[in-house]
From TrEMBL:
<dbReference type="InterPro" id="IPR050600">
    <property type="entry name" value="SETD3_SETD6_MTase"/>
</dbReference>
<dbReference type="GO" id="GO:0016279">
    <property type="term" value="F:protein-lysine N-methyltransferase activity"/>
</dbReference>
<dbReference type="InterPro" id="IPR046341">
    <property type="entry name" value="SET_dom_sf"/>
</dbReference>
<feature type="domain" description="SET">
    <location>
        <begin position="18"/>
        <end position="269"/>
    </location>
</feature>
<protein>
    <recommendedName>
        <fullName>SET domain-containing protein</fullName>
    </recommendedName>
</protein>
<dbReference type="InterPro" id="IPR001214">
    <property type="entry name" value="SET_dom"/>
</dbReference>
<dbReference type="GO" id="GO:0005634">
    <property type="term" value="C:nucleus"/>
</dbReference>
C-alpha cells in the first residue's frame, strides 16, 4: 500500500504533545560520522550531562509491546477484531507488534478510504515518522543478494524471506472473514495490503525493538529508538524504568559523561557481524572480527536413524563458531553429537504408547534410556569417547572448510561488481564486503584451530 510519511523534523512536536520529555536532548534528522557518512536520524546532547542523568523520558503507555497492543484493542473495535482473528499470530511479542504496525500503516495510507477505519492514536503519527526505506537484507535487490553467496547471511536471509511469506499468508487466511479486512486489505479491486507492507513492519520492529529493563520483554520505544548504535566500549546511554513516574528512561551510562553536541548512543546488541547486518543493516565500523557465526549441519541421507535423530534431538541443526573472551576460537553444538554416532555405536530409537494412547519417540544408548539433552554427557563417559570427539571435530572442520570454499569461490563475482545507485547500492556493497572479509577470517582461524584438535 502507499505509505504516508512525516519527516523526522515532526518528531519533536509529536514528543511534546505526547508528554515525552527531552532533557537538553535534540532529535536530529541527520547524524554524520567523522568520515562524513550520513547515518540517518539520531539523538544529540544540547548540554553537558553527567552519569545517570536523564536524557529522555517516555510514558510507559507509549512503549509499543504486545501488552500495549492488547490494551489499545480494548478501545478500538477494528483493532480488537484483528487481534481476535489472528490469535495464532498474536501469541508472540514480535508478530503482535507487527499486526499493530500494519494496522497503523493502513489507517495512515492514502489508499484507505474506509470511513470505519479512521481511529487515530498517538501511534499513528509515530508510525508516519518512521522510515519507509530500510537497508535491511530483506529489502536487498536480487543483485545484492547474489553478493551474499558463501556468507552465513545468505542462508539466514533465505529462511527469513520464506518465514515472512508464511506469516503473511497466515494473516490473509485468518482475516479474510473480518469485514473491514476484506474491504480494505483483500478486495480484488481495492485491497491495498501486500507482502511488502509486512516486510516493512518486520524491518521496523527488528531494527528498533529493544530488550526492556527488568525482564519486561521486548518493545519499541518512540524517540529512544532514534538513538544510534555504538560498540560496547563506546556507547554512552542506557535504559531504566521509573515505576513511580510511570516512565521509560534513557539515562547517561554509568561512569560516562556526555558533552554538549555529542551524539547519544546505545548498544543494540553483542551479536556477530552476520546478526548486525541481518537485524540492523550495518556492521560496526570498528569491528575486527565476525565474532560468531552459525553453520548448518546435516545428517547423511543414508543414515537409517536420520529422521529419528532430527525429530528427537529438537536442536538447531548446526554449530556455533565464536571468539571467546581470550580471543580464542571455540565451537558449540549439541546437534553434532547426534550426527556423529550411529546404531553400531549403541544409539537406537523405539516408539512407545503413552497412557492416553498417543505415540512417543524414545531414544536409548546401549539399551539404557537416553534423554534428548543427555547424549553429549553420555558419550563423554563412554570408553570410545575420544573416537566420538574426533568424529565431531572432523565433521565440523569439514563444514568450516566447505563454507570457506564457497565464500572464496564467490570473491571474484563480488570484486568485479561495481556499486550502482539502483542495482547494488554502495552502502549495501560495502556492508557485504565487510561481512565477507570478517567471516572468511573467522573461518580460516576456525579451520586452523580444529586442525590442532584433530592432531
Amino acid at each position: 500500500m502507499r505509505q504516508a510519511s512525516l519527516p523526522v523534523e515532526n518528531l519533536p512536536a509529536w514528543a511534546h504533545f505526547n508528554n515525552v520529555q527531552l532533557f537538553d536532548t535534540a532529535i536530529e534528522a541527520h547524524i554524520f560520522t567523522d568520515e562524513g557518512i550520513d547515518k540517518g536520524g539520531g539523538l544529540r546532547a544540547k548540554a553537558h550531562h553527567e552519569e545517570v542523568e536523564p536524557l529522555v523520558a517516555v510514558p510507559l503507555d507509549l512503549v509499543l509491546s504486545k501488552e500495549q497492543v492488547a490494551q489499545c484493542a480494548k478501545t478500538d473495535r477494528q483493532l480488537k477484531e484483528l487481534v481476535e482473528a489472528t490469535a495464532s499470530l498474536f501469541q508472540t511479542p514480535r508478530t503482535a507488534v507487527l499486526l499493530f504496525l500494519v494496522y497503523q500503516m493502513t489507517i495512515n495510507s492514502p489508499d484507505n478510504q474506509d470511513p470505519d477505519l479512521k481511529f487515530r492514536s498517538p501511534f499513528a503519527d509515530y508510525v508516519q515518522c518512521l522510515p519507509k526505506e530500510i537497508l535491511l537484507p530483506t529489502f536487498y535487490t536480487p543483485e545484492e543478494r547474489e553478493l551474499l553467496s558463501g556468507t552465513t547471511l545468505a542462508d539466514a536471509l533465505g529462511q527469513k524471506l520464506l518465514s515472512l511469506e508464511r506469516e503473511f499468508d497466515r494473516l490473509k487466511e485468518t482475516t479474510e472473514a473480518v469485514p473491514w479486512c476484506q474491504r480494505v486489505w483483500w478486495d480484488e479491486q481495492s485491497g491495498c495490503l501486500d507482502l511488502g507492507d509486512w516486510k516493512l513492519a518486520d524491518a521496523l520492529y527488528r531494527s528498533r525493538a529493544m530488550e526492556l529493563p527488568r525482564g519486561a520483554g521486548v518493545g519499541m520505544v518512540p524517540v529512544v529508538d532514534m538513538a544510534n548504535h555504538a560498540a560496547d566500549d563506546r556507547y554512552n546511554a542506557r535504559f531504566e524504568v521509573d515505576d513511580a513516574a510511570g516512565t521509560f528512561l534513557l539515562v547517561v551510562r554509568d561512569a560516562k559523561s556526555i558533552d554538549d553536541s555529542d551524539e547519544i548512543t546505545i548498544m543494540y546488541g553483542a551479536g556477530g557481524a552476520c546478526e548486525m547486518a541481518f537485524s540492523y543493516g550495518f556492521i560496526e565500523e570498528h569491528a575486527i572480527s565476525a565474532r560468531e557465526m552459525f553453520l548448518s549441519l546435516s545428517i547423511p541421507a543414508d543414515d537409517p536413524l536420520r529422521l529419528a535423530k532430527v525429530r528427537y534431538a529438537q536442536e538447531a541443526p548446526g554449530v556455533r563458531i565464536y571468539i571467546d573472551e581470550s580471543n580464542q576460537v571455540r565451537w558449540d553444538s549439541t546437534f553434532v553429537w547426534w550426527a556423529c554416532v550411529n546404531q553400531e555405536d549403541g544409539l537406537d530409537f523405539r516408539v512407545e504408547k503413552t497412557v492416553d494412547g498417543e505415540t512417543e519417540l524414545k531414544a536409548c544408548w546401549k539399551e539404557a534410556d537416553l534423554s534428548a539433552d543427555a547424549l553429549q554427557s553420555t558419550l563423554s563417559q563412554d570408553e570410545l569417547r575420544d573416537i566420538f570427539a574426533l568424529r565431531a571435530v572432523v565433521m565440523i572442520q569439514q563444514r568450516v572448510e566447505d563454507q570457506g570454499m564457497q565464500l572464496a569461490a564467490s570473491d571474484e563475482d563480488y570484486e568485479r561488481t561495481l556499486p550502482d545507485e539502483h542495482v547494488v547500492r554502495r552502502s549495501v556493497y560495502e556492508t557485504i564486503g565487510r561481512l565477507r572479509r570478517l567471516e572468511l577470517d573467522l573461518l580460516t582461524r576456525a579451520y586452523e584451530t580444529l586442525e590442532t584438535e584433530v592432531r
